[in-house]
């Protein structure tokens, strides 16, 4: 680690100590990403959070699709402010965060996550205090990233507790997903990456995952797991146009049932490795940024 990175790490540690870390509760951080755009990544993030809420879990979606945030549209919100306004001091986190549905909050990130690394110590303390306070209220923090090999995205994959890689059966999606996974593992071989097969019936989804995981195992010696699949449903685009989340508009559909199945497994899975929380996330983000 460079001296500059060490200094950044010290600032994170100092900020969290001044906050006091009131309890040992740590939210689990998911990075939801994809190798290419247009595969339904943000739709999954939004509806996954709502499915988790049905099991009593609280989630905040941080839209980290730098410059192309649209999660607010799917949640029926028109966000005026983002994490960038918190960093600049114009707004507080309380001003920026929006409760969209019971158990689901949203923060427009913009380029704010990347900008955190350039903050002065005083600014870092203020931001960390607000973020740590948020963590005490949440069970999950979902970073909905952009697609592709953006360096900031790779750092977030490395820093998160778990990454959900959204893949469709299209060859381009499969190839791009492999490249993302390969590059992420080169950055940090300890990454935990799971696959969601989207827009595919069960048999096709299982075949897609089987082929994908076999190639990953053969060439990267990595065991990627499948957290689930979601079949194609043309009504998904209708719900986006209506600015009403799919699982709210079509609660009894096959897709909604599958979303609940995935959420149930996540919500009640045995915790083998405790989440490292926001302090751990920013510590790892800093290490990987240098």
UniProtKB/TrEMBL annotation:
Keyword Zinc (UniProt): no
Any GO BP: negative regulation of cell division
Gene3D superfamilies: P-loop containing nucleotide triphosphate hydrolases
Record's GO cellular component terms: cytoplasmic side of plasma membrane; cytosol
InterPro entries assigned to the protein according to its UniProt record, in alphabetical order: MinD_FleN (IPR025501), P-loop_NTPase (IPR027417), ParA/MinD_ATPase (IPR050625), YlxH/NBP35 (IPR033756)
Binding residue positions for ATP: 36-43
Keywords for this protein: ATP-binding, Cell projection, Cilium, Flagellum, Nucleotide-binding
GO molecular function: ATP binding; ATP hydrolysis activity
PANTHER family, per database record: CELLULOSE BIOSYNTHESIS PROTEIN BCSQ-RELATED, SEPTUM SITE-DETERMINING PROTEIN MIND HOMOLOG, CHLOROPLASTIC-RELATED
Record's protein name: Flagellar synthesis regulator FleN
Organism encoding this protein: Christensenella hongkongensis
């Amino acid at each position: 680690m460079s001296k500059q990175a060490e200094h950044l790490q010290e600032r994170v540690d100092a900020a969290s100590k001044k906050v006091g870390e009131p309890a040992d509760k740590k939210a689990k951080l998911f990075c939801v990403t994809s190798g290419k755009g247009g595969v339904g990544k943000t739709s999954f993030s939004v509806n996954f959070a709502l499915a988790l809420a049905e099991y009593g879990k609280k989630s905040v979606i941080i839209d980290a699709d730098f410059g192309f945030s649209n999660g607010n549209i799917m949640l029926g919100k028109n966000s005026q402010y983002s994490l960038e306004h918190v960093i600049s001091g114009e707004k507080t986190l309380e001003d920026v965060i929006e409760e969209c549905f019971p158990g689901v909050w949203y923060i427009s990130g913009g380029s704010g996550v990347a900008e955190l690394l350039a903050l002065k110590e005083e600014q870092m303390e203020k931001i960390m205090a607000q973020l740590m306070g948020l963590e005490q209220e949440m069970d999950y923090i979902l970073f909905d990233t952009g697609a592709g090999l953006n360096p900031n995205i790779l750092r977030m994959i490395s820093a998160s507790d778990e990454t959900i890689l959204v893949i469709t059966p299209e060859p381009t999606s499969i190839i791009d997903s492999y490249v993302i996974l390969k590059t992420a593992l080169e950055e940090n071989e300890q990454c935990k990456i799971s696959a969601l097969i989207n827009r595919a019936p069960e048999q096709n989804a299982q075949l897609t995952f089987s082929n994908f995981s076999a190639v990953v195992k053969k060439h990267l010696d990595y065991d990627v797991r499948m957290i689930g699949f979601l079949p194609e449903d043309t009504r998904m685009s209708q719900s986006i146009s209506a600015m009403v989340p799919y699982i709210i508009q079509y609660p009894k559909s096959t897709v909604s049932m599958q979303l609940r199945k995935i959420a149930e497994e996540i919500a009640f899975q045995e915790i083998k490795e405790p989440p490292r929380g926001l302090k751990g996330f920013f510590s790892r983000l800093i290490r990987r940024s240098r």
